Amino acid sequence: MNRFEPIIVGFLCNWCAYEGADAAGRARKPYPVNLRVIRVLCSGRTDPQFVLEAFKEGADGVLILGCHPGECHYKEGNFHTLKRYIMLRKMLMQFGIEEDRLRLDWISASERDRFVEVVSEMVERVRELGPLVR
Amino acid sequence: MTEKPKIALYWCSSCGGCEESVVDLAEDILTVSEMADIVFWPVALDFKYKDVEALNDGEIAATLINGAVRMDEQEEMAKLLRRKSQLVMAHGACAHLGGVPGLANFFERQDVLDRSYKEVPTVKNPEGTLPEVQSVAHGRELELSGFHDRVRALDQVVDVDYYIPGCPPTPELIRDAIIMALEGRLPPKGSVLAEKKALCDTCPRRDSRPERLRIKEFKRLHQTEWDPEKCFLNQALICLGPATRGGCMARCIHANMPCRGCFGPTDDVRDQGAKSLSFLASMIDSKDEKELERIADSIPDPAGLFYRYSLASSLLKGKIPG
Questions:
Q1: Looking at the 3D structure of chain B, how many domains does it have?
Q2: Rounded to two decimals, what is the model's pTM?
Q3: Distance, in angstroms, between B209 CA and closest chain A CA?
Q4: I need a surface site. Which of A45, A89, B60, B110 has the fewest CB within 10 A?
């Protein structure tokens, strides 16, 4: 039987998480192919409209990856991300979208193993939840 | 004597408030009736379906339709009036965005029927009868309008030329829309006939809004007394003015109530609820996850609040069935 392969849309900060993903690639670290990466200049650029649009257009999960707290290239962009993320996760429940379909995490430019770990966890969790039926 | 242009008004799933706002034109209705003949207006005039059907296609200059669409009858009327009219205007928040009836999209069709016909304490229905499109009673066949799975805004059913926003729109906006249509000096098709900028921009309390809003909690109206001159957000009361189109003459603000978003999003925004969430969350003055959770929990029904008027036309349009 074919295994369900979720589609995960990832919004990755240009300065840290995207670099981390690049580092994983340069080091030939394998990670699940389910992730579709969109580079944003700051995780704080991830307008909640982007997340809803991703779910509308077929994503089973959305991953936002930014710089560790205190390390934002724009000082506090990632804190804005955190504030919106907490409220958005709560609101998504009312739309019938499980909280775990949206995840925010912090990845620095050097954390290539952490990047692989977070993406793998996300894919496995969403695989458990199953497809988001629209 | 040349014939006057024809206009029509219709209501779908609505409360009657938009009709009331036409009545509130007061003597301005005379200006309208001098310029045009009203050929169809079920709430006030005794014209029938067959009278509309008898008109040539495109014979009506402009039709204003209020209310959201959930029934077969509403869809049929919207399509008929579309065919007979040169211009169709979505009149009021329900036709424009789905409005308050659109909030039913947080529930399944069956839940809505069960609640209304079986569970409501004031309903006595021991046999659990639910409305059916076809049924037989006392040997006679009865037909009712079908009830759709979802509430839709007018432009999800027919092509809409212009939008008159508001719950209800101000009489001034309605008058101006009708006169502009009759005089043929309308903006580009698809325009919302109100201001381009957010309500905050023209709010009478804008001078008391600080450069950066920082709050530690969201208060609710019944929990507090508030300064009638000062920006609501500056008093930790939720006001959707920053994410809502202006043009309402700040009626609620003048009545000392915060904005609830009935004019919908501005032109640059696709999803008013997401934008409301975004600006409110950014105001929170904390970086601690636990505290942020607690503050977010002080809004008991975020989706219902942020999408009060726009759920049916939002990105997700309602609860995902799953």
A1: 3
A2: 0.94
A3: 20
A4: B110
- The residue segments making up the domain with residue B132 are 111-147
Q: What is the ipTM of this complex?
A: 0.95
Q: Can you read off the two tokens belonging to residue B56? A: 């040539």
Buried b (16+ CB within 10 A) or exposed e, A87-115: bbbbbbeebebbeebbbbbbbbbebbebb
- Per-residue pLDDT of A63-119, as tens digits, reads 999 999 999 999 999 999 999 999 999 999 999 999 999 999 999 999 999 999 999
Query: Range of A20's domain?
Result: 10-128
In chain A, residues with a C-beta closer than 8 Å to the C-beta of B321 are 96, 133-134
B318 inside 8 A of chain A by CB:
yes
Integer Cα distance of B5 and A109 in angstroms: 67
CATH number at A20 reads 3.40.50
- pLDDT exceeding 90 applies to what percent of chain B? 94
A133 in reach of chain B (CB within 8 A): yes
In this complex, the residue of B274, B289, B299 whose CB is nearest that of residue A48 is B274
